[in-house]
# Entry
Amino acid sequence: MLRISAYALAAMVISQPALALEPVRLGLDWSYLPYHAPLVIGQEDRYFEEEGIDLKMEPGRGSGSTAIMLGEGNYDIAHINTTNAAVARSKGVPIRTVAVYQTKTAASFIGIAGKVTLDSVDAIKNYRIGSTPGGSDQLSLRIFRAVNNLSEMDLDVISLDANAKQAALLSGSIDVISGDGFAYAAIIRGTGQEPEIFALADYGVPLLGFGYSVNARFAESHPQLVEGFLRAMKKSWQAAVADVPAACERARATLQLTHSQDACIDYFNGLIELSVSPDSPEWGQQTDEMWSNLLGKLADVGEVGTDYAVSDFYTNDYLPR
# Structure
């Protein structure tokens, strides 16, 4: 019988070449933010490596732009707003959504408590609203007007650059801003004040939030990498949600976030509240109903046509079992 010593066996193991990793390019929705913390955990704890993935992530300049770049092949997978992914797909961009974890949109009107009262659609008419033309701000406003039978004259909307909205609100030059409620809520609380939030999802706006979309050709040729990415991503989310302060510490250090620790925790918790728990078997799952509601409202405001098949926009085939 052939006998191999423990030393010889160890030498054989050490001499084996490391498993080659496949490069995967991930496009992000925006520059690094607190909710990108799970990606830091996945890389540093080697969840992606365990799936044979060498993940390269790149900050974006908005979900709409990232969706187009994904379709053009600049990225293989993207973390983007699902509504922007839907609009891009309807225009022929070859992408498909493979997971949606934020099933409730964060689109909101945000003011400062004590200065405004945002408790009804009619109340919104009383205030100056700072909003950024183009992109998700404009789209959510159009749908909000449509579902609540408002004309353009019913709301006093003032066009502002995205970087100017925060300063305008805090200085009092406008009363309310439109944007992601959890993000601006964290900023307002950071000044020692409390936010007043009017969530558009509570008033008939069925937009979907963040998820993961893929380049169609990449998914067809590398299905195992898409599946592995989502498995690693779910584990990363589980670890991040289990200890948000620790996740924020790691994200702030690795991504060089400008947010304070408290602001990071507040910001990240705000998104978690709108998202499906990563411990749930429903994490990432999509349905015909959610997509039909989304596409129907987008068609009502002319963002997508009416001749579409819901199945062209999404699939659950790559989700962890």
User: Anything to note?
Assistant: The chain has two domains: 22-103+208-312, 107-203. The first strand starts at residue 22 and ends at 27.
